[in-house]
Amino acid sequence: MKRMVGATRHPVRPGRVFTHITLLFFVALALFPVLLTFMNAFKSRRAIFDTPAAFPNPETFSLKGFETVFARSNFPSYYMNSIIVVVVAIGFVLFFGAMAAWALSEYPFRGNKQMALYLAIGIMIPIRIGTVSILRLMVSLDLVNTLWSLILVYSAQGLALTIFILSQFMAQVPRDLKDAARVDGASEYRIFAIVLPMVRPALATVAVFTMIPIWNDLWFPLILAPSDRTKTVILGAQEFLGQFVSDWNAVLASLSLAIIPALLLYVLFSRQLISGLTQGSVKQ
Q1: Residues 6 or more apart from 131 whose CB is under 8 A from it?
Q2: For 81, which of 4, 166, 178, 228 is 20 to 30 Å away at the CA?
């Protein structure tokens, strides 16, 4: 007998429909400010205030904001500073965080659980509480107005969450695989190198969650590296915000340029990010 195509259809459950509608609502809510920023970055100043929710048309289209950004500020330098800080800080966080997570998940020692709890507490305590102490430390190390001050602070800020996430993933790697490598004579460093690619989703998740706060941060660049030579993108955008007059074309243009790397990161690592967030939620 021939199978009838479309004979078996799963009924649409109201609960699933409601879930999808809710998710779409929150996606629209999250993307609306981003879309609004991009739309108004390509409009004239008058159009920004007259029709902020309208797409640019031939009458309202303007590149004045982008021209102002590149003419009145050293924006390419600010962009490069942000990229250097983000890349180096994420590299430190992933490298040292992965090593610490491997030690906590693989080697039982006295105080192991207490150490994991101590690191977990570090996730709940915001690093900005210690701003005064951090500033004094950077002054004593002569690192104020250098990119290293930001790199060190952001590396310390991201380690707690990184160790917490990676240790959970590394603990799920089958012990038989690691023991087999030890029997074959592999060193602990070699075993660590074998395990690391197996937790790629977790590494991508940590990279995204570490990158976004660093890229969008205004607090520490304003305090530790406010000079024109070390300004970041977000701090550079503040040049166009005045007490009495603000150049909204330039502000929106600079923010639009600042949003692009975060969007690209999400697009490139979206699959790994979703896998890292959902892995372990379903038992194998």
Answers
A1: 219, 220, 223
A2: 166
Sequential pLDDT tens for the chain (284 residues):
445 555 455 566 767 788 888 888 888 888 888 888 888 889 988 888 888 888 888 888 988 888 888 888 888 899 899 999 999 999 999 999 999 888 888 887 787 778 877 877 878 888 888 899 999 999 999 999 999 999 999 999 998 888 888 888 888 888 888 888 888 888 888 888 888 888 888 888 888 888 888 988 989 999 999 988 999 988 888 877 765 467 888 888 888 888 888 788 777 766 666 655 555 444 44
What distance in Å separates the CA atoms of residue 259 and residue 249, rounded to the nearest whole number?
15
CA distance 122 to 243: 37
State how far the alpha carbon of 33 is from the alpha carbons of 61, 113, 212, 265, in Å.
19, 42, 16, 18
Largest Cα span, the chain = 84
- Contact indicator for 227, 145 with CB cutoff of 8 Å: yes
Tell me the two tokens of residue 116. Answer: 């994991």
The answer to whether 60 touches 47, Cβ cutoff 8 Å, is yes
Question: Residue 36 is encoded by which pair of tokens?
Answer: 């609004």
Contact predicate 228/24, CB 8 Å: no
Q: Are 240 and 22 in contact (CB under 8 A)?
A: no
Q: Which domains does the chain show, CATH number per domain? A: 37-51+61-278 (1.10.3720.10)
The closest alpha carbon to 204, from 123, 104, 124, 93, belongs to 93
CA-closest candidate to residue 43, choices 234, 262, 256, 236: 256
Q: What is the DSSP string of 124-165?
A: HS-GGGGHHHHHHHHHHTT-TTSHHHHHHHHHHHHHHHHHHH
In DSSP terms, which residues pair with 43 in a beta bridge? 61
